[in-house]
Design brief:
Four copies of one chain form a homotetramer. Chain A contains 13 helices and nine strands. Chain A is of the alpha/beta class. The first copy, chain A, has two domains: 160 residues, Rossmann fold; 123 residues, N-(1-d-carboxylethyl)-l-norvaline Dehydrogenase, domain 2 (Orthogonal Bundle). Chain A has a six-stranded parallel beta sheet with strand order 3-2-1-4-5-6. Chain A has a three-stranded mixed beta sheet with strand order 7-8-9. In chain A, helix 1 packs parallel to helix 7 and helix 12 runs antiparallel to helix 13. Chains in contact: A-B, A-C, A-D, B-C, B-D, C-D. Chains A, B, C, D: Belongs to the HIBADH-related family. Chains A, B, C, D: Keywords: Branched-chain amino acid catabolism, NAD, Oxidoreductase. Chains A, B, C, D: Pfam families: NAD_binding_11 (PF14833), NAD_binding_2 (PF03446).
Chain lengths: 298, 298, 298, 298
């Protein structure tokens, strides 16, 4: 299939490679010429604009940092909507707010294009391995149409409901993640201060009611889980600033629908305090440093 | 084995029955005569006091509401320490603060008795089925000695470390539990307000990074999990007031060791608000009612 | 002086009247024809657009609900910048975010107009009485130029610094106000629950270190201060939804400059919970209802 | 009048001196011999125990760190109740929980002694100057009886109601104080980050609705108020650990009467974080350091 692909960053580039590997023909665009060049060497065709990337596409995919970039790439003079053929679906895998998704979908609809939100989870590792989870919002018909394309990049393609619900699923999941991680950090640090062996404590949590991904897979206490960022100085993983962005989307969405989020708003401030103190690029599980008295040795 | 058992409430009574079923000889005491009578009918011997229950015991077990009760039962004129033989171990399965445990253990030690803290998880269901988890604090030697007795009441007997660490494990686990449940409530209610199907949202969380016991086993949103209290009007389960007690133990213990617990302290206030508004006896997952606009239909 | 005035709502209308009373010539515009008509009856000239209102003005004043309105009124085809003469100052008394102010000021600057942010405090009472406080951001020169005009509407005209600092002053003041009011509510409700007479408690606070405007002038406990909204069922005053808007501006601004606001973020959620439960139009001091067990009698 | 005085610490010693200055005869006791000696040199009589200090007293005053000390001094074998004559009033100026006050009052009542709670505000400065505020709980009759004695130590003697309400007044005031101080810290630090001059911002708050003691008298931002601890490196003043103690009393009392204290619980954690990081002895207004990016220069 001929696919237009816009946004070749840490996530977009490996996703585009997996499309190439699956035999698709790609026209790619990115503001970085070197990012485009790397994909061209892998077999893609360079496009001079989002418009050009979309001109002959049977499906267009975008993977961008924020809603403002999606808007520009979509509606600019050289944008996707200026080049795309009627009836072609646009899949946006960026993580952005549901309200923007609905506005973009309305614009696309006006000229006969379906716009699906399809944010992912699984990180750069999942993007490279082609095992991402796609949370897709849009009509069933459009979802069925793009599913084969997404399957080349992900292992789990979930239809969440109407336009915007893909973003809602991602935002709500990450709201819970941000809270549970800080909660586990609190519990582990309290246990340490009260004198229990952190591995014993984690072992009990993980077979009891405190069990969660933040405890059994990604425990923030150094040394409890060898493969977790906490055991390598909080390098790699999912950065504090990215968690902060997602909690910002969650609390903004909550504000819009007038929904209280007590713990989410407080968790956001905790990650903010970490970021302000210079830990923005560290994995978000480093939030445990707000609680531990002396982490010099870790 | 001859066992003294003090405290025949919702948890203690079924635990004592399992000891009888395992062939132990029980001398039981409770302030409620009818509670004692029910156990006598099951084959136990009635004792007139904790002292009397302990007089010939090879092991003494207590299961009481709070530290003040343990203190009174242990150190009163008619208490366990007044009747127990030298060298006999005392196992306290109450959930109390670690500092009290240490004080009680020191008293017991003075007259040659080991005192182990062994709080449980698993609720009244686990108590009846004999599948409780025991989190045990005390010396390895004492732990090995009482393990066979505890095995008649539980499926998972874990040695957590020195005296008090059993309580630490329970308190820290329940701190995380209290936070994750309110966090999941927040995420599910936000998702509802943003228009996603709650079952779809829970399905995504449960296969993603938001996964936790509060979401995949005990989801607070009505109808998502048939067997959860949320699907039967929040009846049964683990009461809000009990969660409130455990979060009180956690924040008190944190205060004692000068450890901040930002989310735990806020979660405690959320359950407090629920209890103040009359939901103290409902399952603690009813905390989601703080977030949902219209739960009349549930 | 010839003044263009755009925005004749609850605040703008009485402000415009005071300008008329001071002898100024007003060209007024509002989307509501009846609002314009009322001012015309008071002596103003009706304008068909912001552009028309600005055409001959020596100073233009705007008083609008949010940044989006200011943008539209300023930059629309029929907007102020399309009609205003070079060198004429524009004073925006709306409460909006500092970042928008800077963007608007840059646009105005491009065509030789000063743009000053001048949000007010004092409410509709102060607007009617002409006793508002104006917090003004902009150059000293521009401030000195518009000060005489503002003095017809306010009793206290404060120069806060460069462009945007007027909004910063208002936002930070109202952040503190939102926190102190909820804090006083918490203290008063706790005192009630602990059995002290609320008037006695308020008396002590007001002569001690808990003293604040929220306690000594606007106490949220009914009956403590006769003139406060709490003593008339929380009607009138400063609505919960307006406080919510201002806390939203504060937490958004904090997010932009990466500044944690722990208590502010939590206070925002408390007012959100009130608003969600139907108290959005009540005075914001009604937040005490989150704390009091039985306010049926009040 | 003959007065027994127990507890000659930073507060008790200057209070006792003011009683001597007013012509009273004092029998004093403290666990520190040097503290007793210093008072003896000022004209007091040394007593070997609280019992001895109370033996001939017409009024007994205690000023101790916590409820446990009051209990011991009151009910020990060598305690006040063992030595005091029937009908003599006991005034406890310690800051302790209202529930303990009621228990102590009941014990005193049993042997015909009134027990009044009379915690103070005003700090060591007010103690030395004799200008303390006394918040007194107890019967009107007992209050009238001890008022002349307290007047020698304080400038403002307030009857708060029945036994315990003196503590309630102090606890609720300090709950509000702890919240407003952290709130002002948040607002001032946000203003700094947004580029307004801190003195200008404080000036606006202090004449507007954000006005409070924490802003206009004790502003936490260095340099805004010359006489405040913030302007001398947060030395002197009211220590973070003392604020932490008082917020602990407030949240404990709230727990006992099942009253939510959302902001108070969070504020407690903020001061806890400060104390954990080594600022326990600094003035509590140093909580602003949690918010400011770079306070090296202050």
């Amino acid at each position: 299939m001929k696919i237009g692909f816009v946004g070749l960053g840490n996530m977009g580039a490996p996703m585009a490679r997996n499309l190439l590997n699956a035999g698709h023909v790609l026209h790619v665009f990115d503001v970085s010429a070197s990012a485009v060049q790397a994909l061209v060497e892998a077999g893609a065709q360079a496009a001079v604009s989002p418009k050009a990337a979309s001109a002959e596409a049977e499906c267009v995919i975008t993977m961008l940092p924020a809603a403002a970039h999606v808007k520009s790439v979509l509606t600019g003079d050289d944008g996707i909507l200026a080049g795309i053929a009627r009836g072609v679906a646009i899949v946006d895998s960026s993580t952005i707010d549901p309200a923007s998704v609905k506005a973009f979908a309305a614009l696309a609809q006006q000229q006969g294009n379906a716009f699906l939100d399809a944010p992912v989870s699984g990180g750069t590792g999942g993007a490279a391995a082609g095992t991402l989870t796609f949370m897709v919002g849009g009509s069933v018909e459009a979802y069925e149409r793009v599913k084969p394309v997404l399957s080349a990049m992900g292992g789990n393609i979930v239809h969440c409901g109407d336009t915007g619900t893909g973003q809602v699923a991602k935002i709500c999941n990450n709201l819970v993640l941000g809270i549970t991680m800080a909660g586990v950090a609190e519990g582990m640090a309290l246990g340490e201060a009260l004198g229990i062996d952190p591995k014993v404590l984690a072992g009990i949590m993980n077979t009891s009611t405190g069990r969660c991904w933040s405890s059994d897979t990604y425990n923030p206490f150094p040394g409890v889980i060898d493969a977790a960022p906490s055991s390598r100085g909080y390098t790699g993983g999912f950065g504090t600033d990215l968690m902060l962005k997602d909690l910002g989307l969650a609390t903004d969405a909550a504000k819009l629908v007038r929904q209280p989020v007590f713990l989410g708003a407080l968790a956001q401030q905790l990650y903010q305090a970490m970021s302000t103190n210079g830990a923005g690029k560290l994995d978000f599980s480093s939030v445990i440093r707000l609680y531990r008295r002396d982490d010099a040795a870790t």
